[in-house]
Design brief:
By secondary structure, the protein is α+β, with helices and mostly antiparallel strands. The protein has two domains: 30 residues; 73 residues, no CATH class. The chain contains four helices and five strands.
Amino acid sequence: MKNTVAILLLVVGCAVTGLLVAHLRADEDRTFQTYEYARIRWGGRENTHLIRPNGQVEMLTPLLSHVKRPDRTDERALLMNIALNAVAREGYELASMTEDSLVLRRAIRK
């Protein structure tokens, strides 16, 4: 009788511990999002801008206005490359591109 009660308490204790551990691990992965995205949109030297993940729009004119274009160089390719390298310092990487914009992603730290 004593052995049966002890075994029953042990099984119930293991079950409760297992449920608590499973519940605590489920809270760690509360968000499904692992990346955040930004976009650099080409609009010429004066109107190229960065759209941040929180919706803030940052004009890149101060960054791009100081660049002197070398001879026989495509201005758009040069300036988009400079903008891409500027946001790469913040941890972004190129995810996709279209003719006039770059989509960037950065891993979300947990």
